Amino acid sequence: MSVDSVGTWKVGTVTAVRSETPTGRSIEIDVPGWGGNLAGQHLDVRLTAPDGYQAVRSYSIASADATDHLELAVDRLPDGEVSPYLVDDLLPGDQLEVRGPLGGWFVWRPEQTEPVQLIGGGSGIVPLVAIARAHAASGSTAPFRLLYSVRTPEDVFFKDELARLASPTFEITWVYTRAAPADWPTKPGRVSHDILAASVIPAGDNPSVFVCGPTGFVESVADLLVALGHPAASVKTERFGGA
Amino acid sequence: MGIISRGFSGRSREHNPDLPPGQFLTTDFPVLSAGPTPRIDTDEWEFTISTEKGTTHHWTWAELMALPIEDIATDIHCVTRWSKFGTSWRGVSLDTLFKDVDTSYGYTMIHSYGGYTTNVPLADLMGGKAWIAFEFDGEPLHPEHGGPARLLVPHLYFWKSAKWVRGIEMHKSDDPGFWEQNGYNIYGDPWKEQRYW
Ligand SMILES: Cc1cc2nc3c(=O)[nH]c(=O)nc-3n(C[C@H](O)[C@H](O)[C@H](O)COP(=O)(O)OP(=O)(O)OC[C@H]3O[C@@H](n4cnc5c(N)ncnc54)[C@H](O)[C@@H]3O)c2cc1C
Question: Which CDD domains match (chain B) (predicted)?
Fold first, then answer.
């Protein structure tokens, strides 16, 4: 990364929007000169009102390749300033300013050979999808697992894509916190010590663990992982904000 | 000015001279950390300052509490774009802690429990600009926010205010710390929007 590639705002054009959940959508953007990003990185989006007022927020990147084509996914916060615009108002053909790629810590590189456990809450799945895509594209044989916590079955981002990525070397565990599918064996509830103990790659296998989502989710999951014996240094976190 | 976002009007309109560029006001206290929250007992807590002369000054929790304690009211600015006005803290000034420290080096590396590091020029820690803070809003500092004690250097972006602080090491040059190696600016002045490399 250099000041040139990160420091300047680039103009992207929205090429597609797709409703993912009742409150969220994915957005595809062409950004000439972007030049690719690592799996797990984020960017800043800048909106400008007609009177010059500007608002900037960070969004993780769901794509991880060397092209100028990006994918984001955004969840609408009821009283938010930027997310309702991105989810409800933005249309294909609209322009957006972006800056990045940003962040060199919450990333996965294809050279990594250790097992990887991904844990996402809500829209926190976005950088984890990028990591899962990079893993699949690289032909890496590192064992991968995903634990994805959502409120209800309707709130799943990238449902089809995750179904495609799932395989014996990429197991997915679903946790429903408010409402589970009709035939689901367990009652809805938050990610607990028991759920993590049963479904996360054990600490003894020395996995790298990536935890992403609302701040409260990340705090609680990261604490439980440490209690289960995962060294704090192998648990990387990305907190999206909120309580 | 950037390209106009069709249909975007935004929310806050008043220009606030206390708000650095690109920041927005929040009443929450969001959390930014790279990993799980370390939990450190004040019984085992220790704070050190070590110099190029091989000298290490150290303080236990009780020794820190015995030093002059200051009330600090300050605005804070996080690189993730929130700012919070008029936060209140209690802590010990770094002027107090550095009183007997003899060094000719001009830079510091701040070390935290959990392995986090951040670099700050010594001049930015001196002159009533930085503290080891252990109380926020009249309560002991919560672990999520860096308790039992964090560095507080509010004139720089808040990642410089290292949580779970355990020591300061004098450096000859301005070597990058953890976030500074991972994409964030070496100095981090919010008024100059020094966010990234
Ligand atoms: C590195 C990073 C990556 C991110 N990636 C994504 C992403 O891929 N997809 C995505 O949808 N969001 C992501 N976010 C969150 C995003 O940056 C915005 O915070 C979010 O869209 C809300 O912005 P807003 O302007 O709509 O709300 P604001 O007007 O900023 O906030 C409205 C209120 O909601 C609170 N709040 C802010 N964020 C959250 C939250 N996540 N949950 C609950 N309450 C919150 C605020 O404190 C405030 O009180 C990411 C954040 C970071 C730091």
Answer: arch_bact_SO_family_Moco
CB contact B5 to A (< 8 Å): yes
Instruction: Specify if B113 maps to a domain.
Output: yes
The topology (CATH level 3) of A116-240 is Rossmann fold (3.40.50)
Q: Does the CA dihedral A39-A42-A47-A52 come out positive or negative?
A: negative
Q: What is the ipTM of this complex?
A: 0.83
pLDDT value at residue A3: 43
Q: How many Cα neighbours within 13 Å face the side chain of B62? A: 2
CA of A59 to the centre of ligand 1 (A): 8
CATH 3.40.50.80 domain span(s) along chain A = 116-240
The string of pLDDT tens digits covering residues A162-208 is 999 998 889 999 999 999 999 999 999 999 999 999 999 999 999 99
* Residue of A53, A57, A98 to mutate, ligand 1, most atoms within 8 A of C-beta: A57
Number of domains, chain B: 1
Domain that holds residue B143: 44-192
- Predicted model pTM: 0.91
Contact residues, A window 186-225, toward B, CB-based 8 Å cutoff: 215, 219, 222-223, 225
pLDDT tens, A78-134?
889 999 999 999 999 999 999 999 999 999 999 999 999 999 999 999 999 999 999
Hey, how many other C-beta atoms are within 10 angstroms of the C-beta on A206? Answer: 12
Percent of chain B at pLDDT above 70? 98
> Are A237 and B5 in contact (CB < 8 Å)?
no
The correct answer on CATH 1.20.1250.20 for the domain covering A9-102 is no
